[in-house]
Write a structure and sequence with these properties.
By secondary structure, this protein is α/β, with parallel strands linked by helices. The chain starts with 15 loop residues before the first strand and ends with a helix. Helices cover 42% and strands 18% of the residues. Helix 2 runs parallel beside helix 3 and helix 9 crosses helix 10. The strands form two sheets. The protein has a six-stranded mixed β-sheet, with helices on both faces. The radius of gyration is 19 Å and the shape is globular. It has two domains: 188 residues, Rossmann fold (3-Layer(aba) Sandwich); 106 residues, Rossmann fold, CATH 3.40.50. The structure holds pyridoxal-5'-phosphate. The site of pyridoxal-5'-phosphate (PLP) has 20 residues, from helix 2, strand 7 and helix 7.
Amino acid sequence: MKNPKKINLANIPTPVFKINYNGCTFHIKRDDYTGTELSGNKIRKLEYLLYEAKKLGADYVFTSGGEQSNHARATAIAAASVGIKSKLFLWGQERKNYDGNLFLDKMVGAEFVFLNLKEYQNLEKHISREKNKLERKGKKVYVIPEGGSSPTGIWGYINFVRELKEQLDGKKIKGILVAAGSGGTTAGILLGLHLYNLNFKIFAVNVLHTPEFMTGKIKNLADECNAKYKITRKIDYSRFEVIGGYSGEGYKHIAQEKVHVIRDFARQTGIILDPAYTGKAFYAFNELFLKGKKTSSVLFLHTGGLFGAFAKRKNYLGV
Ligand SMILES: Cc1ncc(COP(=O)(O)O)c(C=O)c1O
């Protein structure tokens, strides 16, 4: 087994801090510190994916997600930084004001294809049509799946475990809680636990799909990557658990009771959580691992998403 090659984009290692919320002390790993414009969990995956795109000599990278996709924004910015154009296939509609992540996409010159939900369900068709058009003009296109979650991309989170293990150093931590959208972060950590021999449990708070679908997706991604790179003889799936029930309001929305926790957490710690992923994951974390306790042995992974908060400023400020 050989680690695939990557380019360096992320400011890593990201720090682990001990913080206190409502009288309970716990550790947080700040993967929202992987960069400034290029912040959050996607950068670790993009280091591997853009290495492949560069190797292919790609003129364009294509990727997809919701209109406020952190992954699409990170891809557009990372691609611009290495001289590749980006085309984003976004579930949403063109707006007069480009806010949050869309504003940054626009700033770095990303091209957009906006799709409604029905069209987005046929994403592959739209991607291949645009890809064919460009290829007929002699351009090379590298397609990155939603969330950067491919057997190559999830190496970012396989190697995240090596980084985390070095930081544990006597801390009493037995598990990690993370938001799950496309499942790649969880699948990568799962394989990393095997590769770097760390006895941890992963709690993946599902924000997008049903828990059954998400569990299958994480297993498939881990299996595919393991088949390709032969990381372990057998994957122990009991090392991860998908937690459902914390995104009933829908991926693009955030319930007011969660906004209260997000705001309260910001006022006590100075840390801002996003509306689609970390806000929901932290709400679950608080319910399951903090309330009524003095310390928690589960670490919270802050996976970024700050710019998504700008597009929800009215909800956040309660107006
Ligand atoms: C801020 C943030 N956190 C968590 C996730 C979930 O990561 P994954 O798609 O690897 O499950 C995403 C993207 O989907 C994200 O943008």
